[in-house]
Design goal:
The relative contact order is 0.14. The protein folds into 2 domains: 105 residues, Immunoglobulin-like (Sandwich); 257 residues, 3-Layer(aba) Sandwich (Aminopeptidase). The chain is an alpha+beta fold. The chain contains 8 helices and 17 strands. The strands form 3 sheets. A 7-stranded mixed beta sheet has the order 11-12-14-13-15-17-16, sandwiched between helices. It has a 5-stranded antiparallel beta sheet with strand order 1-4-10-6-7, with no helix packed on it. The protein has a 5-stranded mixed beta sheet with strand order 2-3-5-9-8, with no helix packed on it. Bound molecules: zinc ion. Zinc ion binds next to loops.
Length: 373
Amino acid sequence: MTLSISSDFDGGNIRVIAVEGDRADLEIVPDHMSDFYQWFYFRVSGAGGRDLTLRILNAGGAAYPGGWPDYRARVSHDDETWRQADTGYADGVLTIRAKAEGDSLWLAYFAPYSSDRHAATVARIAAQPGVTHKVLGETLDGRPIDLITLGDGPKQVWLYARQHPGETMAEWWMEGAMEKLVDPDDATATALRQKATFHLVPNMNPDGAARGHLRTNAVGVNLNREWHAPTAEQSPEVKLVLAAMDATGVDFAMDVHGDEAIPAAFMAGFEGIPSWNDRQGGLYVKFRDTLAERTADFQTRLGYVVARPGQANLSMSTSQLAERFGAVSMTLEMPFKDNFGAPDPVQGWSPDRSKQLGRDCLDNLAAMIDEIG
Ligand code: ZN
């Protein structure tokens, strides 16, 4: 039986070059109107009981080739539960080996977070007491930008995720954070809701997510380079969210991402903004360092090089919000690889760990919310 390979579903991405026996040669399709690619998600059918060899021939030209060494693709027998597969990278080709138990096997760069799951989660959270749901507006493909608001406190906390749609761990993080915030038995969440108003955008880039993009929206724009001057034509997602932020102000902000290369969760701040001051910067450092003390799934040793004074990139949300609002603002990065400091050989970095880090970040915020704003 010939293998049948499909990515014709929400978030799917693959191009079939050749199928021969138990082997398939494949390519990842670049984001529409962009050269970025690295996200893949597809189903192999007719695969029952076979030892498959799936080769991604254009891996070497991906956005972050440094993401492939020591990376393991995720596979699933039911499109729900994901584990790591035997994966190797050599000569620009990513080779995934996996045995299919049932007829179909799903493969992805990371556990997907579908548009259906997004809609169901938003509906479930919005139905809880004290929660409001608002559609800020529509994307270029006509999808809603969903905003969840809860809490009664004066401090304005904004949490937003998935500017880069292939970084699905970011929306898993949001799911964990939202579930905690609406849990009536969670005393920390109750205290946070008394002290702060939470504004949550679980998916900043629903078009890119549905299209199976790595990094950009429907017209190939990287939303996290638009925050200095978003436009309705290029980046309505950012324009809508920034207008809502202007209406509330922002005291604390977290932009949630995934990083292809670094095998650990880490933070990036707003060093180098024109209005930098040590109090605002010190609160960011305190949040980062206390989070690392709280959980083995976050650390401060590995991360990005920080900007020099005056060199911050104000087109990126974290620096823009720190400069614009004086906010304690930060970018959280989680790994596509495993956390090498606390590895899980079966799942690697996973939806469950992303959700737990969301809860840990809220516990960490609760410990210092009185100092913020
Ligand atoms: Zn990102």
